[in-house]
Amino acid sequence: MSSTLKIYTLAILSFLVGTSEYIIAGILDKIAESMGVSVVTAGQLITVFSLAYAFGAPFVMAMTVRMERRKLMLYALFFFVIGNGLAYVLQGYELLIISRVIMGVSAGVTVVSALTIAAKVALPGKQGSALAAVLMGFTASLIFGVPIGRVIASAYDWKAVFGGIALVGLLSIIIISLTIPRIEGEEPVPLRKQLALLKQPKMVIALSVTFFWIVGYSIFYSYISPLLITVTGMSDSTLSTVLFVIGIASLIGSRFGGFATDKWGIHRALFGGLSINGIALIMIALTIYSPAILIPMLIVWSFAVWALGPPQQLHLIALAPDSAGIMLSLNNSVLQLAMAVGAGIGGIAVEQVSLTFVTWVAAAGIAFAIWAVILSRRNARSEKSIQMTGQQST
């Protein structure tokens, strides 16, 4: 099998794992109804998945760093199938929580392994494109996985979604074992070295951009289905279409984010994307009962959210070019932690105020992200000024 086909196989795997993470947002109202729990309680299924991903996956990766990568991926896929299978067959909210923990840890290990293998099997000079292709699978899960999951849940039952993911996971195990070569493990990076970067204020500020951006995203997206169904009165078919359209917008936004970064620079791309994101959220809050304005604003919001990915990745790499892998790993953990925190904050907003209030709280999260970008830019200018002064003195 050619290198390109191997990478696309890993991208499809990333799509499958991404769907298992994001699908809850698309069927949250149906889970809450069938389980006899509140929407807020059902929303914690997003929180536990993200927490398991954020803390469990790095721990497993650290413990298995020397293990052959294909074997590790196959083990992770096996537990991923188990987690989805349990969600399909077991009854009760508490058991569903357990299945989500298993999914979260195994999904995180699968994605990290896929990225590692993609970099190894890529042709010389094509490693960046290979990683982008695998990550694109995650984005594609928003475009196709979530709306398709909504359609399946409407036509049959929400449990059928997890049953389908488990079956495709089993097929993936067979395909991966036949197509992906053995990739030896690596020398472990001491945890002390990984966490040393967090002692630098500029690194903490840069990672806080990711944290607040994703918190804002998670607060809103976690409750988008019950919000649009309950408040605006959308039908299931209309909601599926809207989820598909904003998924397409996220793909276009991701592409545009790379262009914007090259054209205007990292900080301008981040500031512009976050500003549009915040404005879109405020407009959504103000036009929640006007579908003609609401739907275009949802498209703008999704476009702006995912346009932030490329500049933020480059932002982190530029700050620590010699420790890019560690920074991106930390960023991934921060992202999943933010997903969990956002879902939790969104639940509090719904429970204490109303479903519509999540939009305003999400906008507040984006405001904090904008402030973090401003601080990061000031730090960058200050360091540049110090460097220029030092060069002149010598």
Helices and strands in order:
Elements: H1 3-35, H2 39-63, H3 69-89, H4 93-121, H5 127-155, H6 158-179, H7 191-196, H8 201-221, H9 224-231, H10 236-264, H11 266-286, H12 291-307, H13 309-319, H14 324-352, H15 357-393
Helix pairs in contact: 1-2, 1-4, 1-5, 1-6, 1-9, 2-4, 2-14, 3-4, 3-6, 4-5, 5-6, 5-10, 8-13, 8-14, 8-15, 10-11, 10-12, 11-12, 11-13, 11-15, 13-14, 14-15
Model description:
By secondary structure, the protein is an all-alpha fold. It folds into two domains: 187 residues, MFS general substrate transporter like domains (Growth Hormone, Chain: A); 198 residues, MFS general substrate transporter like domains (Growth Hormone, Chain: A, Up-down Bundle). The protein contains 15 helices and no strands. Helix 1 packs parallel to helix 5, helix 1 packs antiparallel against helix 6 and helix 8 packs antiparallel against helix 15. The longest helix is centred in the C-terminal third of the chain and has 37 residues. It is a multi-pass membrane protein. Keywords: Cell membrane, Membrane, Transmembrane, Transmembrane helix, Transport.
